[in-house]
UniProtKB/TrEMBL annotation:
Annotated ranges, domain Globin: 2-123
The entry's keywords: Heme, Iron, Metal-binding, Oxygen transport, Transport
Organism: Denticeps clupeoides
GO molecular function, one term: peroxidase activity
UniProt superkingdom: Eukaryota
The organism's taxonomic lineage, starting at the top: Eukaryota, Metazoa, Chordata, Craniata, Vertebrata
GO CC entries: blood microparticle; haptoglobin-hemoglobin complex; hemoglobin complex
Family indicated by similarity: Belongs to the globin family.
Swiss-Prot/TrEMBL GO biological process terms: hydrogen peroxide catabolic process
Designated gene of the protein: LOC114794790
Pfam family of the protein (one): Globin
This protein's record includes keyword Transferase: no
UniProt protein name: Globin domain-containing protein
Length: 123
């Protein structure tokens, strides 16, 4: 699947609007993932507090969204733009690639909830 120029512009425009709240979005998505998929906690066993919204979860949620914003910036060449991040997760942290789908799902669920709340408020 490839994105058209229009698709890429829509992605950039969307993330430009939410980038100021990236840390909050990342925190909510990561917190939700750790609650809904407790097996994911094994990747963060070195953290002292894995509870939703803890300082470590908030910090890493912001890092995750920073990675997504990096992907948006490099949308025309994701392979090169995300090479360092890919190598870190694949070879050093040894994160199973299937787990990124779980985190992506949680980001989408959170954004869908925000969208629903906003559509109800501004109807």
């Amino acid at each position: 699947m490839s994105l058209t120029a229009k698709d890429k512009n829509l992605v950039k425009a969307f993330f430009e609007k939410v980038s100021g709240r990236g840390g909050d979005i990342g925190n909510e998505a990561l917190s939700r993932m750790l609650v809904a998929y407790p097996q994911m906690k094994t990747y963060f066993s070195h953290w002292s507090d894995l509870s939703p919204g803890s300082a470590q979860v908030r910090k890493h949620g912001a890092v995750v969204m920073g990675g997504i914003l990096l992907a948006v910036e490099n949308i025309d060449d994701l392979t090169t733009g995300l090479l360092a991040l890919s190598q870190l997760h694949a070879y050093i942290l040894r994160v199973d690639p299937a787990n990124f789908k779980i985190l992506s799902h949680n980001i989408l669920v959170f954004l869908a909830a925000v969208t629903t709340a906003l559509s109800e408020k501004y109807r």
